[in-house]
Amino acid sequence: MITTDNYFDYIKKINISSLPENLKKGHEFVDKATRGGSSWEAYKSDKIREVMDTYFKKLYEHTQEKKVSRPESSKAKKETVQKEKKTIHKEKPQPVESTKRQVEHFPEEFKFIRRFVNMNGKTKTADQIWNFLTALQRSITERRITKSSPYKKEIDFIQDALIRNYNSMKGKIKVSLQEKTILDFKKILGEEMINPSVQFIKKFIRLHGKVGVKEKAKKLLDAMNRAMKRGIFTQDKYFTHLNNLHKRLEKFVKTPGVKSLSIESAELNGLKGILGECGCMHDDRKAENLSGIEYGGRSPKIMNSMDFATLQFKTIGFKDKWKSFIGDPTPGFSMMVYAKPKMGKSYLCVDFAGYLARNHGRVLYVAREEGLDYTLQQKLNDKAVKHPNLFVSSYLPEELAEYDFIILDSVNKLGLSPKDLEILRRKNPGKSFVFVFQTTKEGVFRGNNEFQHDVDVVVDIPEKGKAVQFGRFNQGGEMRIFQ
Prior knowledge:
Elements: H1 7-12, H2 21-33, H3 46-66, H4 74-86, E1 101-103, H5 108-118, E2 123-124, H6 126-141, H7 152-168, E3 173-174, H8 179-189, E4 192-194, H9 196-207, H10 214-229, H11 239-254, H12 265-274, H13 305-308, H14 320-326, E5 334-339, H15 345-359, E6 363-367, H16 374-382, E7 390-393, E8 405-409, H17 411-414, H18 418-427, E9 432-437, H19 450-453, E10 457-463, E11 466-471, E12 477-480
Parallel strand pairs: 1-4, 5-9, 5-10, 6-7, 6-8, 8-9
Antiparallel strand pairs: 2-3, 10-11, 11-12
Helix pairs in contact: 2-3, 5-8, 6-7, 9-10, 9-11, 10-11
């Protein structure tokens, strides 16, 4: 038999790559839990010991079946064949292991491949094609889809097809894809499947904190029980999480008077991390009903500095003069601009709005100070920034979901406080904001010092046409506004 004492000596004699998928995952689990055999501390946990012992047993049985038995005599072989002929019976078909890759969530590319395939046979307007193209461009510029993507060829094909059709459109078109294209893309969509345990975690999170979900919780518990009996989760890397959720569901279903499922906020964040979600607070509701992390926070983790130093964070991808001036910020950055009247702050912001619209997404310029009048039109024309992605408004709309960047000119005219801006950003996670401020005669911006402490980038215009930037992405950048 295999035990903790002989496991790593035993596994050395086995070609791990030839093992069935469930046994490969079992080895990965043991290797990770014991740090390559250097510590069996985790084995002391009842649940982990149960999982490892089950894996040891199945591995041993598998390897014993593979051993070559001694050659039988010709007489024995003949008798065996005759016996088999007499006792022919139908064997139950063995379940075939899925060849699909199990993932926590589908790649970003799948969203666009599926959307493209679903267009087949449907009539689309130029605006619909443009919106599809814009969404794809946004994912590329935000590096959610990169050049190293395994589906780069398909994404390039989709992008070229959208651009080609958009440029030749005069009205509506009926999309007609070749049969081979549809089959190839559907094959890609079928290569991966969501990890079974992740599907249960998602369903649990949907019930969390809600009232009147006892019947749904009971159905989810029954489904988990059936899956556990079939051994689906025995070697699952999220078994510990799933087992904990199972206990919570069982207690909730069996305890009268308990109206809603509860879970600690830190644990909820950990579950959302499995699903690839940020765990940020998306609105102004109480933290205990959400993830308990303030805006801009991340799932609570302790990391070794060596690992943290190698992490790659997504940036927007600024280039040319704007990268020299500001640096390359991350999505959801905030910036404040202040100057005396007639120094060029609105020209700077209009120019910046045009750059963002041309390269990085949809922009809303709220011109509360000037309104939608001739002077704003002149600035837009002077800087040649008009673009389908740039929108102007004389007021701040309630709904900002369709925009990636929002410029408020000015915060003072809109009557917004530091708390208002904090709530605005919290309600719109991932959106980038530029706040424009009026100043006093001395050149000091009007408002509380909290404004300056709460943003990532501060831009001062100390003299006409000259902007100086102080921020976390590129300290001390300068720019000539009217050049």
